[in-house]
Amino acid sequence: MFPQAHNFTIPYGQFLNIQGDQINNYGDSQRTDRPADYFQVMTDCPTSTPNFTGREDILVTIDNFFHPPPPDNPRKTQKIFLLYGLGGAGKTQVALEFTRRFKQRFTKIYYIAADSEISIKASLFDIAMVNGVVGAQNWQSGLRWLHTHEESWMIIMDNADNPKISLNDYFPTCDHGNIIITSRNAELQNVVSQSLQLQDMIPDDGIKLLLKHAADRPLSFNEQEQAVKIAKELYHFPLALVQAGAYIKQQKCLMTYLTYLNNERKQILEKKLPQPPDKYKLSIYATWNISWKQLSGRSKTLLEICSYLHYHYVEYII
Ligand SMILES: Nc1ncnc2c1ncn2[C@@H]1O[C@H](COP(=O)(O)OP(=O)(O)OP(=O)(O)O)[C@@H](O)[C@H]1O
Ligand SMILES: [Mg+2]
């Protein structure tokens, strides 16, 4: 009917296709460039695990860093704190626990899964949407909102591990606001004012964390001694402790777990991997493998399917 028709819009019209050219169904004023993967309230901050344990010295350091400026020196600067360290060290949990404990101090708290630019852009768009920015058109609308709102907002930029992403491009350039970055990438120390490496837990906290997961009854002296040994063998490393604890409780095998662990570690080391794992990774792989071997074929398939999903936002119903 309109053989030459292309590149025009019909304000408030219906969604149409004319000779293969797609025509927008909105007037210009309503056109949005909604980022891929955006969904409503995706920046709502999750809470830390109910089993959160220890890390008090680190929480104090972060607390001091984000303390409001004293009245006699009210100069404002944007504050950015980096928590870096190995996967499973507990960086995300510490950031979430900090904002849980000190939420009164901030006007708003946003959680951004910073593992991809798609997710960062979608989250910034969400910040515009949750703040009711009229005519929010793209992810830059969120940056503008943060820039223009001189408030004490807090953003957790979580799992910013990819060195190819230029994180700076996604920080609002202003003198206000607070950001915590968690990352495995120590290089990010160059873009922040303060950073801290998260390592093993102090032994007492490591043992407590193991027992929170491993024991559902008071333990005998011998059993407690055994828990101390297991936590030490796992270098008081949170992810390994949690994995081991869950298995011990499920299989009621506190007294025999060390034997399984040593066998598993030996088997992994015999595998001639391209790069031998360091002591932390070895503990994580070993504790994981012990649990994995216990699963039925159907459960393994389910977990393999889950591994294709994003590690956040997996519905509990699954
Ligand atoms: N302080 C803690 N108290 C209780 N559990 C913890 C603590 N730290 C970590 N964990 C446990 O270890 C798991 C891994 O922690 P977390 O996801 O915070 O590690 P991460 O350093 O952010 O790892 P990644 O680099 O893979 O994102 C958590 O799911 C939680 O079960
Ligand atoms: Mg993390």
Please describe the structure with a list of short key phrases separated by commas or semicolons.
single chain, 318 residues, alpha/beta, 5-stranded parallel beta sheet, two-stranded antiparallel ribbon, 10 helices, 7 strands, 10% strand, globular, binds adenosine-5'-triphosphate, binds magnesium ion
Detailed description of the structure:
The protein has 318 residues and is an alpha/beta fold. The protein has ten helices and seven strands. Strand 1 (16-18) and strand 2 (21-23) form a beta hairpin. Helix 7 runs parallel beside helix 9 (279-294) and helix 8 (257-269) packs across helix 9 (279-294). The longest helix has 16 residues, at 279-294. The site of adenosine-5'-triphosphate has 21 residues, from helix 2 and helix 7. This is P-loop containing nucleoside triphosphate hydrolase protein. InterPro entries: P-loop_NTPase. One of its GO terms (molecular function) is hydrolase activity.
